[in-house]
């Protein structure tokens, strides 16, 4: 009896796994996620909430129920292996946050319901590849970030000593200098807003700002982009290599099957020939 129940449970698990892997099921959940994103945006409108607040909250709870059901189906389908995938853990955390009560010390987490929209990243393969590439580039980005931080610190110390007394609002301390240099690096009003006023007091200040922009903006930031692009290219090449390996395995399997069929046909022909020769000898 236990074996029969276990077999039925395994059969049900296989059916549920087939269901959650269907393309139409994935598209349905993706559509509901996008619909939920629209509803969350509508909840920010005081006018819409005054007129349709009850309806919007009801639809939000209904969609949350669908997402919880979908999550339970996937957990049932994959069991413990579900929690071995980082994307599945992300989906689980996002749904769990949405279930936090609206009152109490954890009520602030309710504002994170909008994170449900990010589930799109785990369901669209192209977006998933981009995020995976970004995460894969973090070690290289960390090294460049450390170099950039050192450059920032050196220039901040120099700026504080050179311009701190004359422009305390920009360079009065290390903290002020770091923030100002960040503004300069983003090229946000760096010339008319910061560099030229400083140059009115210190005419040679361009010798400070121009090298900083060349190093921080045009060199270091481009290195960030280069590492991300290189990582994405590596991910793409690995995917293509994996696809080629799968194709080769499929071809090898087909060839083995063909060889086996040929051997069986040859054996059958030998048997037929043996039977024919035996019949002829009997005659």
Structure in words:
- There is one protein chain.
- The chain contains 11 helices and no strands.
- It is mostly helical and 283 residues long.
- The protein has 2 domains: 2-123, Four Helix Bundle (Hemerythrin (Met), subunit A) (Up-down Bundle), CATH 1.20.120.350; 124-283, Helix Hairpins.
- The protein is flat.
- The model is unreliable at 1-8 (pLDDT under 50).
Keywords:
single chain; 283 residues; mainly alpha; Four Helix Bundle (Hemerythrin (Met), subunit A); Helix Hairpins; 2 domains
CATH classification, class level of the largest domain:
Mainly Alpha
Low-confidence stretches: 1-8
Order of helices and strands: HHHHHHHHHHH
Counting DSSP H or I runs of 4 or more residues, the number of helices is 11
Structural class label = mainly alpha
